């Protein structure tokens, strides 16, 4: 059940409309940075393997097989080690993920402002960011005034004042998007780790109980 829950959460994060709209973008021959998906794929793999290993543990417990329970314990140790490694990787790269996406957005924004932007897809990339995240412009002075003079890049608001004071810059929105998603991944990873620890303890207790009972 835990594996199924983790797999479901991971697939939901993988196919979330906001992240897929942004991370599938392509600026010329440059693909949007999709380092974020590495953590998602690890969660998908862990969830799928946990479901399989769970059946192995249940069958081993029903059959009272020390071999199956030992294999179950070994698989759990390997999964736990992989999850800890993925958690360390995610903690180290959590700021870099949003930074890479912001740099990609800034490059597209600069191309969209250039006179020859009609020859590339910078404008389309920027509009996708703006529509998906409900934002406009980067985190600088140009980003603040962009909604006032580039209605082709920013969605049209009811009034100029509303545009200036209610439209968030895209750097802030990108940070919020990925920090929220990474927060969910972190919670899922902690829940899985706690469940794994209990599984390892209980499987060893059961295995030792079967071994001791076989003596008598």
UniProtKB/TrEMBL annotation:
Keywords: Adaptive immunity, Cell membrane, Disulfide bond, Immunity, Lipid-binding, Membrane, Transmembrane, Transmembrane helix. SUPFAM superfamilies: Tetraspanin. It is found in: Basolateral cell membrane; Membrane. The chain crosses the membrane at residues 36-62, 68-92, 182-206. One of its GO terms (cellular component) is basolateral plasma membrane. GO terms for biological process: adaptive immune response; regulation of cell population proliferation. Pfam families: Tetraspanin (PF00335). It comes from the Eukaryota. Its main location: membrane. It is a multi-pass membrane protein. GO terms for molecular function: lipid binding. PROSITE patterns: TM4_1 (PS00421). Disulfide bonds join 135-170, 136-154. Belongs to the tetraspanin (TM4SF) family. This is Tetraspanin. The gene is Cd81.
């Amino acid at each position: 059940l835990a594996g199924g829950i983790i797999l479901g959460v991971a697939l939901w994060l993988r196919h979330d409309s906001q992240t897929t709209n942004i991370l599938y973008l392509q600026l010329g021959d440059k693909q949007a940075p999709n380092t974020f998906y590495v953590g998602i794929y690890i969660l998908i793999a862990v969830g799928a393997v946990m479901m399989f290993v769970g059946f192995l543990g249940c069958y081993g417990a029903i059959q009272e097989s020390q071999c199956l329970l030992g294999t179950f314990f070994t698989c759990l140790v390997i999964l736990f080690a992989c999850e800890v490694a993925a958690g360390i990787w995610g903690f180290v790269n959590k700021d870099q993920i949003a930074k890479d996406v912001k740099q990609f957005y800034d490059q597209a924004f600069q191309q969209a402002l250039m006179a020859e932007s009609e020859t590339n897809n910078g404008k389309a990339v920027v509009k996708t960011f703006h529509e998906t995240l409900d934002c406009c412009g980067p985190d600088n002075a140009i980003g603040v005034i962009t909604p006032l003079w580039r209605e082709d890049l920013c969605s049209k608001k009811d009034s100029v004042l509303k545009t200036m004071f209610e439209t968030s810059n895209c750097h802030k929105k990108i940070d919020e998007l990925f920090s929220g998603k990474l927060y969910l991944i972190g919670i899922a990873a902690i829940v899985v780790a706690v469940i794994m620890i209990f599984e390892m303890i209980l499987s060893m207790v059961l295995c030792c109980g079967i071994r001791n009972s076989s003596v008598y």
